[in-house]
Write a structure and sequence with these properties.
This protein is an alpha/beta fold. It has 2 domains: 7-126 and 273-309, Rossmann fold (3-Layer(aba) Sandwich), CATH 3.40.50; 141-268, Aspartate/ornithine carbamoyltransferase (Rossmann fold, 3-Layer(aba) Sandwich), CATH 3.40.50.1370. The chain has 10 helices and 11 strands. Helix 4 packs across helix 9. It is globular, with a radius of gyration of 20 Å. The chain binds N-carbamoyl-L-aspartate (NCD). N-carbamoyl-L-aspartate binds next to helix 2 and helix 5.
Length: 318
Amino acid sequence: MNDFISVRDLSAKEIVCLLDMANRFREDEYKISTQLFAANLFFEPSTRTKISFIVAEKKLGIEPLDFHAETSSMKKGESLYDTAKTFEAIGANVLVVRHEADDWDKELADKLSIPIINAGAGKKDHPTQSLLDADTIYQEFGRFSGLKIVIAGDIKHSRVARSNAEMLSKLGAQVYFSGAPEFMDESLGYPVLSFDEAVENCDVLMLLRIQHERHNEFVGATLDYHENFGLTIEREKRMKKHAIILHPGPVNRGIEIDSSLVECNRSKIFKQMENGVYVRMAVLTKQLLNWGIIDENKIEKCNSLEQRQYIRKVRTVN
Ligand code: NCD
C-alpha cells in the first residue's frame, strides 16, 4: 500500500481528485463515524502545517495524539522507527511525520500497517504544501495551463520549491525559478528568470523564506536581500494587475517581502493557510480509504447517498 510521501508518486489525475475532494470538505461537513487516532510526529518546528493537520483531524472526528519530540523517548535514544512502531502498537491509525532528513521515509517504508503522511522531509518533499498551493491557485484562476508561476527565493534548500515545481508542472503550469544565483539549483531543470523579469511577467509569485537552518556557511546574498531579491513596494507596483502573491510561511517581513504587502489585496498568504485544512482532510481521508482502515460507509455527511457515490468514484481513480 502507498504512503503519501512525494509528489513524484501522484498523477495529475490523482492530484485533481484530491483538490476536488478538498473542495467537498470546504463546502460541507463530514465526519468519520468510527474511533480513529492520528499521531502527529513533528521533529522540526511547525506552526501552520502541524496545527492545520490537527484541525483537519478534529473536523473529521479523528483524535490527534499528543507528541512533542523534545520530551519524547527519542531524547533517550529511541529511533524514528521504534517511535512509529510504538504509536502503531498503542493504536494510532495514521502517522503524520515531519523530519529534517530528506529520506526519513525509507526507515519506515513497508514496515507499518498504518498509512504515513509526509508533512515535510528535509529539503526534498512537502506534498501537502504543494497541494494547498495548487488549491489556492485554482481558486483564483480556475486553471493551471498557461499560467506563469515563479517560485522565488532559496530554491536550493527548499522542499516547498521542489514539491511545487513538480506538482504545478504536472498540472500544466509553466514553472520558473528566480532569486540569488547562490540559491539556484540547475540540477532541478527549471528555467530561471531575473527577479525583476519574474515580478513583471508572472501570474503567480511564490516567495520563499531563506532557509538559514539548512545553510552550512555564510551566504553573501543574505546581505541587502530585500533590495536585491525581495518584493519591495516598488516592485509590487510592476506586477500584472491580476497577479497574486503566495508564501508558504513563516514570512520574514521586510526580507523576502515588504511587511505592508503581506496582507495586500493580491496576497493570498492567509487563504493558503485556510486551504491547508481542507487539502489535509482530503489526504487523511484518501489514505484511510486506500488502506482499508475505513470504507465509504464510515464517512458521514450530514447528507449521505450522494456523498457515498462520490467517495466510491474517488477510490476508483487509484
Ligand atoms: C515551510 C516548510 O516548513 O517547509 N513552511 C510550511 O510548511 N508552511 C516553509 C519554510 O519553513 O520556509
